[in-house]
């Protein structure tokens, strides 16, 4: 006998036999078949509604759990991105912000922050229009950093789990566009004023997305992994920018 069919048969018998025994006992205790059958009919009438409500509750719970599991997997990818290149890109980009924009876009996080504090910080970054003071060494450093991690960025872009996280996908596209812009241009010493303005605009778009995504990711760590949150607050780009060296 098929093992699956055997399990199904045993489960059915374990439910049907006690039910039949209880109805038999009811006929013994209440020697009125009409009353027993009316009770059975009323219970059967309620069964579709019970099944409907049970299905809604169970499906909702399963869908919520499935969504949470998918988002948890995506947040692992977000963490990999920041560990590999995102933190260093934040450090380098923030180091070239104009002095008037550094405070608004610093993204400094405190251990005592609440969700409202994170939301306020995200709004401040999204409302900012950061400007960068970029020279040839800055362009060379950014180009080298992005070029060294272009393969990793491409692998992240190919991960199907990103369909669950639109904002992170948008960030990866913005960063990968920067990689493409540097790849298609000559050495920084040959940049025209148009090249510089265009690259600054691309960096601005990527930086705002990068900073807001970083804040969202750190809030996730605060909720799910307090020990990692503590580490990020103390040593990450939002905690002490000078403590995170940019890779060569």
Please, could you describe this protein's structure?
The protein has helices at residues 3-29, 33-95, 99-105, 115-127, 136-148, 150-157, 166-183, 193-224, 226-235. The protein has 248 residues and is mainly α. The protein has 2 domains: 3-60; 70-243, no CATH class. The longest helix has 63 residues, at 33-95. The radius of gyration is 29 Å and the shape is elongated.
SSE order and pairing:
Layout: H1 3-29, H2 33-95, H3 99-105, H4 115-127, H5 136-148, H6 150-157, H7 166-183, H8 193-224, H9 226-235
Please name the defining characteristics of this protein:
mainly alpha
Number of structural domains = 2
Q: Structural class given helices, strands, pairing?
A: mainly alpha
Order of helices and strands: HHHHHHHHH
* Alpha carbon gap, first and last residue: 65 Å
Shape, principal axes of CA atoms: elongated
User: Largest beta sheet, briefly?
Assistant: none
Percent helix range: over 70%
Calculate the mean pLDDT score and round it. 80
- CA radius of gyration is 29 Å
Number of β-strand runs: 0
Unreliable spans are 238-248
Number of H- or I-type helical stretches = 9
What is the strand content? under 5%
């Amino acid at each position: 006998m098929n093992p699956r069919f055997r399990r199904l048969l045993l489960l059915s018998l374990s439910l049907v036999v006690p039910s039949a025994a209880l109805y038999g006992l009811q006929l013994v205790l209440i020697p009125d078949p009409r009353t027993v059958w009316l009770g059975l009919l009323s219970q059967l009438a309620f069964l579709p509604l019970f099944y409907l409500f049970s299905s809604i509750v169970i499906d909702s719970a399963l869908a919520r759990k499935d969504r949470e599991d998918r988002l948890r997997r995506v947040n692992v990818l977000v963490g990999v991105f920041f560990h590999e290149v995102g933190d260093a890109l934040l450090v380098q980009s923030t180091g070239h912000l104009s002095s008037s924009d550094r405070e608004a876009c610093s993204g400094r996080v405190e251990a005592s922050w609440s969700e409202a504090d994170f939301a306020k910080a995200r709004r401040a970054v999204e409302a900012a229009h950061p400007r960068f003071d970029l020279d040839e060494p800055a362009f060379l450093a950014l180009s080298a950093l992005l070029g060294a991690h272009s393969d990793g960025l491409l692998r992240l872009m190919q991960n199907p789990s990103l369909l669950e996280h639109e904002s992170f996908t948008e960030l990866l596209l913005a960063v990968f566009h920067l990689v493409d812009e540097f790849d298609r241009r000559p050495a920084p010493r040959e940049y025209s004023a148009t090249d510089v303005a265009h690259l600054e605009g691309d960096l601005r778009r990527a930086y705002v997305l990068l900073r807001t995504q970083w804040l969202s990711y750190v809030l996730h760590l605060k909720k799910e992994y307090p020990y990692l949150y503590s580490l990020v607050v103390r040593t990450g780009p939002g905690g002490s920018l000078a403590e995170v060296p940019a890779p060569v």
